[in-house]
Amino acid sequence: MGNRVIIDENVCKGCALCTTVCPKKILFIDKGRLNDKGYNPSAVTDMNLCIACAMCATICPDSAIRVERE
Questions:
Q1: Which residue from 15, 29, 21, 31 is spatially nearest to 51, judged by alpha carbons?
Q2: Which among 44, 46, 56, 70 could disulfide-bond with 18, CB atoms 3.0 to 4.6 Å apart, if both were Cys?
Q3: Are 66 and 11 in contact (CB under 8 A)?
């Protein structure tokens, strides 16, 4: 199964803080999608690269990110 980053897209406001702290640089703001509030949510490029450090979840001001460790 592996490590997983779960982003609640309808809570995410696309502030991009998570993208700045990810040591693997696998988070990005998905400009091709809008959530229910009209924001571009964060997304993961390659879940297999996630090391489950949870830096993204820690910095998220809206608690929109949860990390599950393998």
A1: 21
A2: 56
A3: no
CATH code (residue 15): 3.30.70.20
Q: What is the pLDDT of residue 1?
A: 67
What's the structural domain count of the chain?
1
Phi, psi torsion values for 54, nearest 5 degrees: 70, 15
pLDDT digits (tens, 9 = 90+) for 21-31: 999 999 999 99
Which domain does 42 fall in, by range? 4-68
Going by C-alpha positions, the residue among 52, 48, 49 that lies closest to residue 66 is 52
CA distances from 50 to 3, 27, 34, 37, 54 (A): 6, 10, 24, 27, 9
